[in-house]
Every structure is written in C-alpha cells, then in structure tokens.
Specification:
single chain, 301 residues, alpha/beta, 8-stranded mixed β-sheet, 9 helices, 14 strands
Length: 301
C-alpha cells in the first residue's frame, strides 16, 4: 500500500476503513444525539442569532435544511416562523424528527413541516416538486457535508451535491454550508469547545488522519459520549444518575476540506457573478485566527 500513511493522536494502531453511505446507519448516533449535540435550547446563542438574523436580513422565508438530522435546526427555524423543508440521508436520525413533528402536530408550523429522506446526490430529485421558483435558502450545517467521502479522489460527488443545492435555490437565494478547520485538526490542534452546540457529554475524542501520497485524505474521529439517560447538568455541573454512567462509542469519518479549495469549488459551481463570503466562527476571517469552523455564505446570481 505504497504512499498511504495512517496516523492517530493519541497513539493507536491504525486501520484503513472504507467510507459508508450512511455513517449513522447503526442507529447509535441517533440514540445519543441529544447528549452529543444538545437539544434546540442548548444551541449556542451566537450560532442561533447568526443564522436567524442573517435569514431575516436577507428576507428568507422558505428554507431547505439538507442536513436536518434529528431536526434540531429545523425545529429552531420553525419556532422562529420560517417555512422549512427538511431532508437527511439517515432514516435512523429522521425517526426523531418525525416523532417531534407528530408530538407537535397541532401547531400549524409543525403540521405543515415536510420531512423527506434524501442523500445529497439525489436531494434535488427528491424535493423537485417543492422547489417551485426556488428556496430562499439552503442550509447544511453541523460539519455534515464532510461526511460525504471522496471515493474517487476528485471530489466529483461533492460537486454533484453542491450542484443539487444550487438547483434548489432561487436567484438571490443563499447557500449556507460549513466545515471544520481541518488544517487545524491535521496539526493535532483539536478544539476543546464547539461554537455550535453544548458538547458537555462528550468525554473523549481521538482524531486520526489517513494520508495518501503525503496528502490528508480522511479524518477519523472516535468519540466517547455519556448516555443522555444517565447524566444531567445542573448549574453548569455534570451530575450522573449512576455511579457507573453508561457510555457510547462512536466513529465518524470526514473528508478534510481545505478552506481555499472549498471556496474554489463553490465558485466553480455557482459562477463568479455570485457573491461569496466566508466566516470563521461567525466572524470575518481577518478578525479571528485559526477558527474552529468555517461558514460559507453564497448568494446565487
């Protein structure tokens, strides 16, 4: 296997693992997702205000959430008065979104909430009957897009997915998409906090990097998460309902997007006449050094 290097931090025997279409297929992530990422009330205030204020400033009303997971962001937007169509490629995650819609079905926003299973390579076909003149915004948050692995080595599927997002947008519509600062992760500088959500129940993360011909090709992150049923947090202090709280081990894989390459990919698909702006942790890039996340905002022309 000449040219392939696999390193982990902290030290661990490396195993090369093929990517899968649905990394949440075993249902483990869906089961502990509330503990992993928090509910809609645990979303960090700067993220919530950033998203809602931007959508309102741009006059956005109809939103397509293409990485809705259990529905956390979609619910937040529904509660703020937006019309939301939600899709995700994992039926295990969507199960929880369907449950929320059913439990709140008497509220008009939730009665009209459309949820469909769709992966990004097929999402336009799945929602084509709903596109009409185009959505005001397509959102893809939570570093979800990086779960689409580069099976061919030329990012053809990533480009196809973004073309599908572009087709769903009206002229003047926004694509909001994020990814981690993978340059930072590759250097072993894993962040201790997340700007998007409350990660208090994640007790350990091990980051591994697979390189091909000296170039990082895959990031593997192993998480140990406290079960939401066995712990709680009061006044900012974690408490456990059992002396031996249960944990769940998760392994997620990411394509290590480099920020400049990602911007160039967006420009290739949307065209130079569109407007492009990239933030680091919700701030202009010149205002922050080594952000944890990059947030790309594209206005389609």
């Amino acid at each position: 296997m000449t040219g392939i290097e696999f390193k982990t931090s902290p030290s661990r025997t490396g195993v090369i693992i093929k990517g899968v279409n649905d990394q949440y297929a075993d249902g483990k992530m869906a089961k502990v997702y509330k503990a992993f990422i928090g509910d809609e009330n645990a979303r960090t205030e700067n993220y919530k205000r950033f998203l809602i204020d931007l959508l309102r400033k741009k006059g956005c009303k109809r939103i397509l959430d293409v990485a809705c997971g259990t529905g956390i962001d979609s619910i937040m937007l529904l509660e703020e008065g937006f019309d939301v169509v939600s899709t995700d490629g994992s039926d295990k995650m969507l199960k929880y979104a369907y449950e929320q819609r059913w439990e709140r079905r008497r509220e008009p926003a939730f009665e009209n909430w459309i949820i469909r299973e769709a992966n990004w390579l097929e999402v336009y076909d799945t929602v084509e009957d709903l596109v009409g003149d185009g959505f005001d915004a397509v959102i893809c948050f939570g570093s979800s897009f990086a779960h689409l692995l580069d099976s061919y080595g030329d990012q053809r599927e990533q480009k196809q997915a973004i073309r599908n997002f572009e087709k769903c947008l009206k002229r003047g519509g926004l694509l909001l998409i994020d990814h981690r600062n993978y340059e930072k992760l590759i250097k072993g500088q894993a962040p201790k906090k997340c700007v998007f959500y409350d990660a208090n129940y994640i007790t350990n993360i091990t980051t591994s990097v697979l390189s091909v011909m000296g170039k990082p090709a895959l990031i593997i992150r192993d998480y140990i998460v406290l079960s939401d049923e066995t712990s709680d947090k009061t006044n900012g202090v974690k408490k456990y309902k059992s002396e031996t709280p249960s944990t769940t081990e998760l392994r997620l894989m990411f394509h290590p997007h480099m920020v400049n390459d990602f911007i160039n990919m967006l420009k290739e698909i949307f065209g130079e006449k569109s407007s492009f702006h990239t933030l680091g942790d919700f701030k202009n890039l010149g205002e922050i050094e080594d952000p944890t996340f990059y947030i790309h905002i594209v206005e389609k022309q």
